[in-house]
Amino acid sequence: MNKKITIPQLLFGVFIFSFNFIPCFAEIKQDEFIIKQKRFVNELYQNKRYFDCIAETQRLLYYTDNKTNQDELIYFINACYFLGKQYKTVISRIDNLKKNTGILSLNNLFLYSRSYLNIGYYDISKKILYSLDYSDVNEDRRSDLFTKRAEFFIKNFDYAILLKEVEIAEGYFTNFGRLFSLTDFRNDIESYKEIGLKSKWLSVSLSALVPGAGQVYSGRLMDGLLSLAAVAGSAYGALYFYNKKDKPPAITFTFFSCLFYAGNLYGAYNSAEDTNNNLHRRFTNRINKKYNLNYNPADYIEGRIFE
């Protein structure tokens, strides 16, 4: 005898059947959201809307269970803060990350060091870069560690220390694959001795003997002529009125002559310093262009974040 199925039983069966498939539907919906969200974040990133990127990546992070993907998204958020020039925020976030996990990825370590450097904390930035030795880093990332240290020293014109760093690095690797060899790099850095830096104290001494001579020595001919004219003109005026026994203007011209002479010495020092800075910048720009040392956190953003 066939047993009839009542309407309540039918409804209950449909409910149970549907209930079993709800997680599948939810998972499909979640996957669709993640795909769309990644595309949206990528669009924001390409348009350099870094702070919108951060907000939308936080939403994406909420739906990401894989630990590796989470770490990549956290780095991406930190990188967006860096690209938005919020260096103190980057430092604060990485400080918290270090407290919570006890370790930092190499990418976050680079970001941490460069953020301190960008706000003027030279010693802290250097200490962070040297918190790891080459032997602590995977072989395929040792060149990254070297280039960050190299860029740090080049940025601060510490060529002699950089040459010592090259010697240390040569104990772990000799080249960067297709990029460049350490031997070529060392030879180029050693050429800093030939860039023609000016002695600031020699410049001051020359201007002390002949006003404006230090500026001319530093390549500032017009500044030198102006300094000479100012000191000589005011000194001549002081002498002229002194010989005429006209004391008030003689004192005034003497005062300005001393003032211009002191300014001439100060200008000689600054002229040599400015010239040296320009020579350093030309040299470092050439090195950075040839070896592509300029730090960009975007270089370490994994492509699969946006896949």
What is the mean predicted local confidence, pLDDT? 86
Shape: elongated
The top-level CATH class of the largest domain is: Mainly Alpha
Helix content: over 70%
Q: Provide the CATH architecture of the largest domain.
A: Alpha Horseshoe
Largest sheet: none
Query: Structural class per helix/strand content?
Result: mainly alpha
User: How many DSSP H or I helices?
Assistant: 13
| Strand residue percentage | under 5%
Low-confidence stretches: 21-26
Count of extended strands: 0
Gyration radius over CA: 33 Å
Q: Helix and strand string, N-terminal first?
A: HHHHHHHHHHHHH
Number of domains: 2
CATH topology category name of the largest domain: Serine Threonine Protein Phosphatase 5, Tetratricopeptide repeat
Structural key phrases:
307 residues, mainly alpha, 13 helices, Serine Threonine Protein Phosphatase 5, Tetratricopeptide repeat, elongated, 2 domains
